[in-house]
Amino acid sequence: MRQFSNEKTVPRPCLWRGGCRRVFESSLLPRHFGRVGFAFADVHRAPIMTAAFCVSFLAWCCMLLSGLALTESDALVRSFAWAVGNAESPARTITATRFVGVSHRILVVSVAPSFAVSPNASLYSSVAWTDEEACSHEMESTCEQCALAAGSVTKLAIASILTQMVQMATDLQRTTPYGDMNCQKLMGVITGFYGLISGLKSLHYFSSGCWRSQPTTFTWEAAPELGAFEFEARWGPGLGLMWLATLLKAVDIVCHLIVPTPRRKRETGADDRGWSLPEYCAAGATGGATRFGYYVRQHE
Predict the structure, then answer these.
(1) What's the chain's average pLDDT?
(2) Contact 78, 100 (CB under 8 A)
(3) How far is the CA of 162 from the CAs of 80, 200, 235, 241, in angstroms?
(4) Contact 202, 160 (CB under 8 A)
(5) How does strand 104-111 pair with strand 124-128?
(6) Which residues, in sequence order, are CB contacts of 241 under 8 Å at separation 6+?
(7) ∠ at Cα 204 (201, 207), nearest 5°?
(8) What is the mean pLDDT of residues 67-85?
(9) What is the pTM of this model?
(10) Could you give the CA distance from residue 83 to residue 214 in angstroms, rounded to a whole number?
(11) What does the alpha-carbon distance between residue 270 and residue 203 come to, in Å, rounded to a whole number?
């Protein structure tokens, strides 16, 4: 914890300047926001913020796995599809499975050995939303809507992944009173909400703009006499992982909110303009030697 709370690492350059600390750390908004929380959480800061980091790391892993469906790899889309659909003929001689990713769709048709089909029948197809030739006829409307949604979904998903990295760093920063600061708490909540909104919007754009535009029936050209049979659509593993990651972001936000910053750093009358940065950091903890060569005085 000390390694990531600036006791053994160099803090951000901005905070070395007294003027910068007065604006981003010691002004009215950060100090008042630092007061938000509970006394028990202040005492148990280390386990709570460590738990927040574990939750954030799990959410980041879920988002990375879910993001594999953003690629154009058929293997990855089949493994981490955001939506999956199954359809089968009444006699179960033909089964179709549809894997929907952000960039394209894969259709796999399985035929029972006892059912005779044309030797030229296509049992596997992969259609990119930007492929004009493959998206002709009945796929045209679906491809158009999915192509429009894909850009927004990709940007929001990537933004959610990147903000989660900042979130994890903030969680570790706040594990000790020495490293915890008003600006870190404010940043943790802001980036958490931004990532939460980005995740929810990406889910909304995909569900409303692409998933629901997929055909609800399937007719196989090699056996048109069987007619159309219904698709049973469901969440894919990628969409489930993104939902889980989004919910975990809310847990991380709550952890930041309930843990107040150290009392000395959030006091209205505290004047840190004459302090060095190690001295200000130690205002939340018992003084001691630091890597920077200072012997920091003790504060209440």
Answers:
(1) 80
(2) no
(3) 20, 15, 24, 16
(4) yes
(5) antiparallel
(6) 62, 63, 65, 66, 80
(7) 150
(8) 91
(9) 0.82
(10) 10
(11) 45
pLDDT of residue 257: 95
Residue carrying structure tokens 């160099």: 10
Beta bridge partners of 85: 98, 233
Whether residue 295 is predicted with pLDDT greater than 50 in this model: the reply is no
Joined tokens for residue 165: 């990295």
Counting every residue written for the chain, the total comes to: 300
Q: What is the pLDDT of residue 116?
A: 58
Interval 250-264: pLDDT, tens? 999 999 999 999 888
Q: What is the mean pLDDT of residues 141-152?
A: 85
3-state secondary structure the chain: CCCCCCCCCCCCHHHHCHHHHHHHCCCHHHHHHHHCCCHHHHHCHHHHHHHHHHHHHHHHHHHHHHHHHHCCCHHHHHHCCCEEEEEECCCCCEEEEEEECCCEEEEEEEECCCCCCCCCCCCEEEEECCCCCCCCHHHHHHHHHHHHHHHHHHHHHHHHHHHHHHHHHHHHHCCCCCCCCHHHHHHHHHHHHHHHHHHHHHHHHHHHHCHHHCCCEECCCCCHHHCCEECEEEECHHHHHHHHHHHHHHHHHHHHHHCCCCHHHHCCCCCCCCCCHHHHHHHHCCCCECCCCCECCCCC
Q: What is the pLDDT of residues 108-127, one digit of tens each?
A: 887 776 665 555 455 788 88
Burial zone of 95 (CB within 10 Å; 0-12 exposed, 13-18 middle, 19+ buried): middle
